User: What shape does this take?
Amino acid sequence: MRQTSQHGQWTSRFAFILAATGSAVGLGNIWKFPYIAGENGGGAFVLIYLVCILAIGLPIMIAEIMLGRRGRQSPINSMRDLADEAGASKFWSWLGWLGVVAGFLILSYYSVIAGWAMAYVVRVASGVFEGVTADGVSNIFGQLIADPEKLLAWHSLFMMVTMLVVARGVKGLERTVKFLMPALLAILILLVGYAMEQDAFEQGVLFLFKADFGKVTSEAVLIAMGHAFFTLSLGMGAIMVYGSYLPRKVSIGSTAVLIALADTVVALLAGLAIFPIVFANGLEPGSGPGLIFQTLPIAFGHMAYGSIFGTLFFILLVFAAWSSSISLIEPAVAWLVENKRMSRMRACIWVGLATWTLGIGTVLSFNLTADIKLFDKTFFDILDYLTANIMLPLGGLSIAIFAGWVMSKENSASELQIKSPILFNGWLFLLKFVSPIAVAIVFLNAIDVI
Ligand code: PHE
Assistant: This one.
């Protein structure tokens, strides 16, 4: 197998950790996790999500990085060569294709939501939230999403900056994430500090951590599992392609643990910052995708230097989204460069344009086409459901089957270099049995077969 990828490689283990954490930590942690936890009843949902991260997400993350580093190419080509090495059918490259399509679909709506965050940078900075009430914030949010032109403009801007970084390759990214992640963490902690001063802090904490399994439906379990994949960027080749730029000597197991931990801490901090504000202001925890845009501005509007902290917060959120969106599209770009002999720049323009066009569907689904629904879901809801709850778990399941059953144990052992046999066998057991069975059961349950 090759020693390095044609696209270059990370300069160190730390650089990879930053990039992969940059991919993992994004809108999923700060925007999506609180609102789906809110919609699905809180504590029990959070607990199921944490179990999914540990028992399914972490082993699959290790597997995905491992496959990437051994294949050293875009997921499509890596899977083809790895299947060849294992004496299996070349058909496995479809797994790379599934990922390319999922990344394209996710980025198309991810960019629209990142656009909301961009719009909020300007709004918070202008001071409109100073002393604002919960109703006032909801109005401002409502006006934003009701305006397709504004949404489209922000979506276009976000797509442009994303494709600009991807066009410049692995290097530019490394430098940006180094500062962003620590700064984002600092502001989140500050927000949790504000939330702690609220009388409703305890209520918020209880909502997030007190498990009441009575409210859990099989749909909620599917959403929790899907989110474990989404938040760790698993099942679509993003982590695989980043793994393909990973230097040989880096230990994959411990690195993956750090990434998953950082991702989980950020999500829980976001929840701790948001729910006390929700309850203190009589808002609904289940108010959907607008949740953070309707709660956090209240905090910023009432604390000292709130406009400054608020502006900084939304800037960082945009950056967090940015470092994730890059990884969503990297598998497609890497493949075009490898197979179509396109320059990186050209590949970015094509993929960027296609994604932007599809994004218009999501823009409209919040206003003009909000009433057009299929199975009670808007265009945005359908994309979100299809990708996070179906495509990513399916991709993850296939990765587990390939790494656990198709690839030889000698090869995975030599790639992972886990010294303790207990840890290695533990990983293999989770990968071969626990993750695939769990994903299968959740799937079947959700479609009401069981
Ligand atoms: N993990 C990112 C987030 O939580 C989203 C993402 C999903 C990025 C899949 C890459 C691949 O926001």
